[in-house]
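Tutorial handout. Part one gives the primary structure; part two gives the three-dimensional structure as tokens.
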Amino acid sequence: MREPIRPKLAFGFWGLVDFRQAGPIAELLRLFQELAISGLAAVAWYVAGHHALGWALGLISLVHHALVYVLGGTLLKQQ
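Part two.
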């Protein structure tokens, strides 16, 4: 039986990749990365039988990212 991917390795990808080098699509790539990670976490809660927590995490993630852009922010900060 395969050993599951450790959370440290999965979240290590988040900090390992610097999308600022991607030019004009950097912000879009970072948004996709953050939504994918938080979406997987929400699905994991849901599949584990914690349906309310899965839905809550998914909704909080979507609201958070929408508010970032509505309030004029970005996910990538300038260096």
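Part three, for discussion. Residues 9 and 16 are 10 Å apart (CA to CA). The chain has a mean pLDDT of 84.
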